[in-house]
Design brief:
The chain is mainly α and 235 residues long. It contains nine helices and two strands, in the order αααββαααααα.
Length: 235
């Protein structure tokens, strides 16, 4: 109709477009780090990132700022940001905290999860198995994260979910790296299956214990690797 503005050209539409572009650029940059395309210590060059991600400099700069705040990048005075190395002590601390949060969530989920919740958790586990068989680590990781987040959501505790989402920004790199260990990946599949079975049986003690052990097992692989790795130059 005459006089009506297209939502894509309205201020609200433009804001949504910018938000979507920022989100996709941030996720694209995060994935480059996860995949090792941008290894620890790598200096970021905006022009190259624009070409790799197919966007202009503004969303790239915003993505760099966001990932710097999340700890994925390190800002250097008067120089380009560099990819931050995983910090051994931080991963150790994350392992302790995340293991307890997920243990608590799994215990609570045994009482609060509906049949529909358990079905979606089982679907996420199925996708993990499919992607493991296909060797699709990136897709596996997303299904893995979905599995854990759906358990948190099934507690109906918004504070717990909020804390988990905040911590996931820090722990994602370590969790992704743990699956790069050939022996760890199939073991992780087995552990998820055992957790799912205990959830379905509503066995809170067993499910929560399995979850805590699972989280610690995965991150211990990264901790061991970092303990023997040479330091990464970042300045």
């Amino acid at each position: 109709m005459e006089g009506m503005r297209d939502s894509t050209t309205s201020p609200a539409g433009e804001s949504r477009q910018k938000g979507s572009l920022f989100g996709s650029t941030t996720e694209g940059l995060r994935q480059l780090i996860l995949d090792g395309v941008l290894p620890p210590g790598q200096r970021l060059l905006e022009r190259e990132l624009c070409e790799q991600l197919g966007v202009s400099r503004t969303p790239v700069r915003e993505a760099i700022k966001a990932l710097t705040q999340e700890g994925w990048l390190r800002a250097l005075p008067n120089r380009s940001a560099v990819v931050a190395a995983l910090d051994l002590e931080e991963v150790r601390s994350l392992a302790t905290v995340v293991a307890e949060i997920e243990r608590l969530a799994t215990e609570m989920a045994c009482g609060s999860a509906t049949a529909a919740d358990l079905e979606t958790i089982a679907q996420a586990h199925h996708q993990m198995i499919v992607n493991h068989v296909r060797g699709n680590l990136r897709e596996y990781f997303q299904a893995n994260k979905d599995f854990h987040r759906r358990i948190i959501r099934s507690t109906r505790n918004s504070v717990l979910l909020w804390i988990w989402d905040l911590l996931s920004m820090r722990v994602d790199r370590a969790r992704y790296a743990s699956n790069l260990e050939p022996k760890r990946w199939p073991l992780a599949i087995k552990e998820h299956g055992e957790i799912l079975d205990a959830l379905i049986e509503r066995d809170a003690d067993r499910a929560s214990g399995l979850m805590r052990t699972h989280v610690l097992n995965g991150l211990s692989v990264v901790i061991a690797s970092l303990s023997h790795a040479p330091p990464v130059a970042q300045d």
